[in-house]
Design brief:
Layout lengths: L3 E4 L6 H12 L2 E4 H10 L3 H10 L7 H13 L7 E4 L5 H13 L6 E6 L2 H15 L7 H15 L2 H6 L4 E5 L4 H15 L1
Parallel strand pairs: 1-3, 1-4, 2-3, 4-5
Bound molecules: adenosine-5'-diphosphate.
Adenosine-5'-diphosphate (ADP) binds next to α2 and α3.
Amino acid sequence: MLNLVLFGPPGAGKGTQSENLINKYNLVHLSTGDIFRANIKGETELGKLAKSYIDKGELVPDEVTISMLESEVSKHESPNGFIFDGFPRTTAQAEALDTFLASKNTAITLMLALEVDDEELKRRLLERGKVSGRSDDQDETIIENRIKEYNSKTAPLKDFYSAQGKFVSIDGIGSIDDIAGRLYTAIDSKK
Ligand code: ADP
């Protein structure tokens, strides 16, 4: 299986690049942000809980996120692999994912980190907020908090995957096609 973690701060282009990768490698796309938003829209219990954190730009608690992710993975019988987009975001999530995948006799192949500077991120998120309707993209305080959460809780995962020899840094500035090309090169040299 080809199991990719697509990593990067809010606004780095994870969703956009996931589209390219699922088509090229025939993977199942699991975006925790998308799953939370679907639950919020459907007004489920999980959605109500997630909303209370997302509206503040905070991470949803690990135990909630991990069990949701595991149940999503288990829905797929024999996939070519997964793209994890927005997960893991904490060390506890990364450890849980390793254990869970090992129990399914598989593992993460590669962690692809899209690197974009904070100014460009803020610009992209505010731009997206104008068209997406996502309330967490329309408020500069929430955006700043998300970037802060990323820097304190999520960025350390680079070391986690580096220690396993699975970390690749990808320049996230440029055209969508250029960035896709960089991702393909990194994946094809590891496969
Ligand atoms: P972003 O554009 O910030 O990358 P996402 O769509 O991936 O946005 O996630 C939106 C929000 O959902 C996050 O700000 C966070 O509150 C919550 N969330 C998404 N994934 C996770 C996760 N793995 N752990 C905890 N919270 C998460």
